[in-house]
Automatic annotation (TrEMBL), chains A, B:
UniProt KW Transcription regulation keyword: yes
Domain HTH tetR-type: 7-67
Signal peptide: none
Species whose genome carries this gene: Streptomyces tremellae
Gene3D superfamilies: Tetracycline Repressor, domain 2
Top-level taxonomy: Bacteria, Bacillati, Actinomycetota, Actinomycetes, Kitasatosporales
Annotated coiled-coil segments of the chain: none
DNA-binding region: 30-49
Protein name per its UniProtKB record: TetR family transcriptional regulator
Alphabetized UniProt keyword annotations: DNA-binding, Transcription, Transcription regulation
InterPro entries: DNA-bd_HTH_TetR-type_CS (IPR023772), Homeodomain-like_sf (IPR009057), HTH-type_TetR-like_transc_reg (IPR050109), HTH_TetR (IPR001647), Tet_transcr_reg_TetR-rel_C_sf (IPR036271), TetR_C_27 (IPR041478)
SUPFAM superfamilies listed in its UniProt record: Homeodomain-like (SSF46689), Tetracyclin repressor-like, C-terminal domain (SSF48498)
Amino acid sequence: MPPSETPLTPERILEATEDVLRRYGPAKATVVDVARALGVSHGTVYRHFRTKAALREAVAVRWLAPEQGDLCVIAEDSGAAEERLRRWLGSLFEAKRRRAGEDPELFATFLALARENSDAVARHIAVLIGQLEVIVAAGIADGEFAADDAAATARALWHATARFHDPAHAHEWHAPETAADFDEVCALLLRGLRP
Amino acid sequence: MPPSETPLTPERILEATEDVLRRYGPAKATVVDVARALGVSHGTVYRHFRTKAALREAVAVRWLAPEQGDLCVIAEDSGAAEERLRRWLGSLFEAKRRRAGEDPELFATFLALARENSDAVARHIAVLIGQLEVIVAAGIADGEFAADDAAATARALWHATARFHDPAHAHEWHAPETAADFDEVCALLLRGLRP
């Protein structure tokens, strides 16, 4: 319990919380554990995050955020919509697969946390479907895609690729046939978008 | 422990096993529990199913079988392939949703059992993808569909609809928006099959 020298920022609290969650698991981790890891009182932690739930939600949001940024760059890119869509779906699958594979225990921890913070997850999914809609709308505007409704099509693309991004399928992602399955699904979906 | 009057058939043992699994859960249920429920010795049960694993696999196979039959009728039906495909996918989703909704605890029990018997599940999935292939091949033969490879397309249809048949998604099936999500995914997939 070393007294902290650097100022206690929300960022440092979130890092310590991730560490505690990882060590004790989401069922057992407490705010007292987080405070102890930082060498502060739990009252100090509560000055930054008013409840345990708020702290855990902030960790969930922080965990989900990096995916959004990389994909946003692809969505806002110039170039053919079909190529961009394939790249976006492939990048999402690759990011999920990498995170699940590198540290399956941590992935399971954050999955439990995400399930408990379904609002944070719903907002994350809405952002990602919004990015798909940007690509679909661009494809429609260029005459590359023939969909009537960009928002409905974006939702359909999201749900039709659930096997390749929903953490419930993480145990299948490293199976040898999964990459080919992904390519077959993408090919069928892209065929459905062409005029 | 009433002594059994009717002959001890495999069917009766499977029924008793389902009952025991439901009561004690898949982690705790034993062959001794099954034998006790039937009023016989566990040696008698082992004469029909040589191992506990074989008994549990037979229960998993029995649980999965009814779906196959109803869907087979649709796959082998005459009529437009597109309508048949939509009906097949809709029937599978409806059957899964009904079984998950009627008795979520039993559904979870059998899901655990299915995970433990991945060969039985793999055979079940192969049968269902085979039925999709029958429909796709009929659509190609009639000029209704334009896919190059009926087998690859059947696999793509299966994986693109995972959210609506994979038990990992059971918790989403009764959400109000899921029926609309299903329709949007089907519409996109069918568009991808048209010439």
